[in-house]
Amino acid sequence: MVNRGDTILVERCLGGDIDAFELLVGKYQKPIFNLALRMLNDYDNASDIAQETFVKAYRNLASFDRKYEFFSWLYRIAVNGCINFSKKEKRRRELNSAIVAENKTPEEIHNNRELNRLIWDVVSELKQDYRVLIMLKYYGKQSYRQIAYIINTPEKKVKSRLFEARRILHRKLEARGVLTYD
Amino acid sequence: MIDEEFSEIIERSVEGSASSEELARLEKYLELNSEAREYYKRLLRMSEIMGRAEEADPPPDLKANIMATIKRQRNRPKQHAGPVKAFLINLRESFNRRSAVAFSLGTVFGIFILAVLVGFPGGEYAWDDSAVSGTMTLNMLDKYETIDRKTFGPGESRNLIEVKRRGDIIAVNIEIQTKDIIRLSLTYDATDIFCTGIINRNQSAPEFSASAGRIEIAHQGNDIYTLIFNDNDERSTDISIVISTDDKDEEIRIATD
Predict the structure, then answer these.
(1) Given an 8 Å threshold on Cβ–Cβ distance, is A63 in contact with B190?
(2) Alpha-helix runs per DSSP H in B17-61
(3) Which residues on chain A are in Cβ contact (under 8 Å) with B93?
(4) Residue of A19, A155, A178 to mutate, interface with B, max B Cβ within 10 Å
């Protein structure tokens, strides 16, 4: 189902109301920035890509296909931007230089900040192809159909790749002691 | 082995979007299938854990920077320019450091393709091999893969559209021979590919207009056009070309990968 609120804002933008676009930026800057951050593992580059995504979206608003969510379209532009950027960037700075030590106590592991860092460390270890799927599924809350559109890949392939991405992520989370079963 | 239908119900159940009827069916299925039970448990746990990871805050000035860039571009005084100049302005606005490199590469390759296709200026070269030793190879075209090739217009026509590709550079060659005015309208997904240059060999003074995702050419006479595109993700969609004459429109779709 297409988000009517976003569609109305897009219509207002096309009518020349720039404040409407500001509302869309405010609404989606965080998820777009986070997607870029997790794909590129670099704060400054992620900020550049997020900015470029919105500017590009504004410029090409007339070509936005209304049968998709505005948010999915934004994701598509951001993912393309990140892939393009990664292809050209030889050197990648790590988001967190220190890899989490293995000998944490259970109390430390369950400390929220530590858990947060552990999860993002593990996500950042995934291949970029898998990372984008995990981000879109768990944080973007996108359906398979939407992901297929965003990364321009058949839905069936999205399903099988996401299955594999989850399997690897699960194994890594288990190895770090993040996933435990009572 | 987990049945595909139940695999999807498991996912919907974890996301909280399964219907009560689906949940009842799933419960029975899980009782009978230990592998599915394990998968369900894993997904549920992982979803819970991933839900606890907090997203990072973007830079506080991100929104302000975005809006400032957009307003700057909007407020730039409009220039009353002809179609070719408008196209160039549009190109310049689309440029950043990365696309500038792509544009330069695209233009160089485009000129080279055109030169190889139609011959270098100055006529035929005579090759005197009496004083040459060693090997010289000039075979750029082999590095471009022909993706699609279509003719259009009347049966005997030599009108041709050809798409070649190398990496993320796409060259669309359009060869037209016509006495009447013919209009070409190219539409493409501007988030997938962007046009970095247009070259027409005979410089037959066509009318151009270009905007994001659309290029219009009004043409009369004989010419060969080469349109260079840069592909953002190497998985680009088709380009649609509508060829309009006074009495009919003909649409051709050409693949770009």
Answers:
(1) yes
(2) 20-32, 34-52
(3) 59
(4) A178
Could you state, in order of their start, the residue ranges of all structural domains in chain B?
Answer: 1-74, 140-254
Of B50, B96, B212, the CB nearest to A119: B50
A146-165 tens-digit pLDDT: 999 999 899 989 988 998 99
pTM: 0.52
Q: Which residues of A touch B65 (CB under 8 A)?
A: 51
What secondary structure letter does DSSP report for A97? S
To test the contact with chain B by mutation, choose from A39, A41, A43, A56 the residue with the greatest count of B C-beta atoms within 10 A, namely A56
Structural fold of domain B140-254: Immunoglobulin-like (2.60.40)
What amino acid is encoded at B228 in this protein? I
DSSP codes, B186-245: EE--TTTEEEEEEEETT----EEEEETTEEEEEEEEEEEEEEEEEESSS----EEEEEE-
| Complex ipTM | 0.78
Interface mutation vs chain A, best among B46, B96, B235, most A CBs within 10 Å: B46
In A, which residues are within 8 Å of B70 by CB distance?
18, 21, 54-55, 58
Any chain B CB within 8 A of the CB of A119? yes
User: Chain B: residue nearest A46 by CA?
Assistant: B58
Can you give the C-alpha Rg of chain A in angstroms?
18
Indicate yes or no: CB of B70 within 8 angstroms of CB of A54: yes
Closest to A83 (Cα-Cα) out of A117, A60, A53? A53
Instruction: Count Cα atoms within 13 angstroms, Cβ side, for A126.
Output: 26
- The pLDDT profile of chain B, 257 residues, written as one tens digit per residue, is 778 888 888 888 887 888 889 889 989 999 888 888 888 888 888 888 888 788 888 999 999 999 999 888 877 655 555 667 667 666 665 656 666 778 788 888 888 888 877 766 554 544 454 544 444 444 445 567 888 888 877 655 678 888 888 877 888 888 888 777 788 888 888 878 888 888 877 766 677 777 778 888 888 788 888 888 888 766 667 788 888 776 777 888 888 77
User: Mind telling me how many Å the CA of B224 is from chain A's nearest CA?
Assistant: 28
Closest CA relative to residue B75, chosen from A16, A133, A10: A16
Instruction: Give tens-digit pLDDT for A87-98.
Output: 776 544 444 443
Q: Which domains can be identified in chain A, with CATH numbers?
A: 4-88 (1.10.1740.10), 106-175 (1.10.10.10)
